[in-house]
Amino acid sequence: MQNHIIFLFSLQNQNYKGHGLSKGKEREQRASIRFKTTLTNTLMDVLRHRPGWVEVKDEGEWDFYWCDVSWLRENFDHTYMDEHVRISHFRNHYELTRKNYMVKNLKRFRKQLEREAGKVEAAKCDFFPKTFEMPCEYHLFVEEFRKYPGITWIMKPVARSQGKGIFLFRRLKDIMDWRKDTRSSDDQKDDIPVENYVAQRYIENPYLIGGRKFDLRVYVLVTSMSAGCLLWSGHGRHNVHLTNVAVQKTSPDYHPKKGCKWMLQRFRQYLASKHGPQAVEMLFSDMDNIFVKSLQSVQKVIISDKHCFELYGYDILIDQDLKPWLLEVNASPHWDGSSQEDYELKTCLLEDTARCGHGKEKRVGALTSCGSDGPVSRRRGGS
Asked: Where does the source fall among the domains of life (predicted)?
């Protein structure tokens, strides 16, 4: 039996009331839940096998739609949804999932905490590397770059994923070459904008397992971004990626059945054997802080529509001092299983999410849905 981890943010229990645009009595009599998705992977398998869930195709009415972000952008404002209907993204989810917006919101929130609660509280937001948006913060970046000559920086496109467009550099000349490369030709260079990137200080002391870098993928389920959320967490729904999986698959020694991932329990045991249980507990407490503070940073800017939920994929890097660093947050995590073990983990995760998404259960797997009238808080529990 696998352990679970999902973080559930919610203002209130959102009870399932019916289906589509049907009238009240008809909704009460109907037992099925009509779902729709365009994703043909683990998610489709989970939804098709849920008792009482019926797939809807084309333009049929639906109660639960796991859509892609492009559909949301093009259709949300023109689609009528009855009160009970649920859809898998917040309208402006990008406030947390675009790299430049995430950093902007975290910086703003840190300044707010320093004004309102002091430097000690603000320091709890120091979990992301020094970052600048390019090209608009180029001059600020140059000042920082010259303070610490010789260190490595990493450039990342703000809206791409799976390692695409990323490169390392130590010289300003490399940035100038990059800016030239993004233009198609000299006679068009004034008309074609440079693609936005972030320049981020590279974590040069990553924790290694078997001589390899890794990151942790943590799935965080958010059902409401309204003020007054209560967080409940269980244990375990982490994936430990031994290097970027999308990149690792291109390696000639990649094994598709074994993959390159660990389950959380194995990872915790490994760390405890090296550093002791107390250090491991501190690490995971610091990770909890990342989830809470990052969501607080966008709480006032993300549109908390009652129809929306989001299953975020957090990527966390750990350094040699067992300090966790937030690398990025994904709005559309990859649901294909890279191995049988990975497929089973994602199946359990998505089953919990589907059950919670339409709001019938107060407890789902390792999730507990609670309401609160106070600020975002955290309550922990075992699985």
From this structure: Eukaryota
Its pTM surpasses 0.85: no
For residue 167, list its beta bridge partners: 155
Q: Dump the DSSP string for 161-223.
A: -TTTT-EEESSHHHHHHHHHHTSS-GGGTTTSPPPPEEEEE---SB--BTTB--EEEEEEEES
Largest CA distance in the chain: 70
Which CB contacts under 8 angstroms, 24+ apart, belong to 260-266? 260/338, 261/338, 261/339, 261/341, 261/342, 263/2, 263/3, 263/236, 263/238, 263/239, 263/341, 263/345, 264/3, 264/5, 264/235, 264/236, 264/237, 264/238, 264/239, 264/240, 265/3, 265/236, 266/240
Distance of CA 48 to the CA centre of its chain: 25
Chain centroid to CA 175? 28
Q: Is the per-residue pLDDT at 297 higher than 70?
A: yes
For the record, the structure tokens of 334 come out as 């990859």
Tokens of 85: 């209907």
The whole-angstrom separation of Cα 366 and Cα 351 is 11
Give the model's confidence band at 234: pLDDT under 50 very low, under 70 low, under 90 confident, else very high: very low
Tell me the C-alpha distance between 228 and 375, whole Å: 4
pLDDT computed for residue 198 by the predictor: 94
Predicted confidence (pLDDT) at residue 236 exceeds the cutoff of 60: no
Contacts of 368 (CB under 8 A, 6+ apart): 8, 232, 362, 381
Rounded CA-CA distance 369/253 in Å is 43
How far is residue 82 from each of residues 60, 62, 300, 307, measured CA to CA in Å?
14, 10, 25, 9
Please provide the average confidence, as pLDDT, over all residues in the chain: 77
Closest residue by Cα to residue 300 from 89, 116, 108: 108
> In the predicted model, is pLDDT for residue 253 greater than 80?
no
Q: Give the span between the Cα atoms of 134 and 155, in whole angstroms.
A: 9
The residue with greater pLDDT, 166 or 325, is 325
Q: What is the mean pLDDT of residues 227-238?
A: 42
Q: Tell me how far apart the alpha carbons of residues 313 and 334 are, in angstroms, rounded to a whole number.
A: 9
Are the C-beta atoms of residues 4 and 236 closer than 8 Å to each other?
A: yes
* Cross-strand partners of 15: none
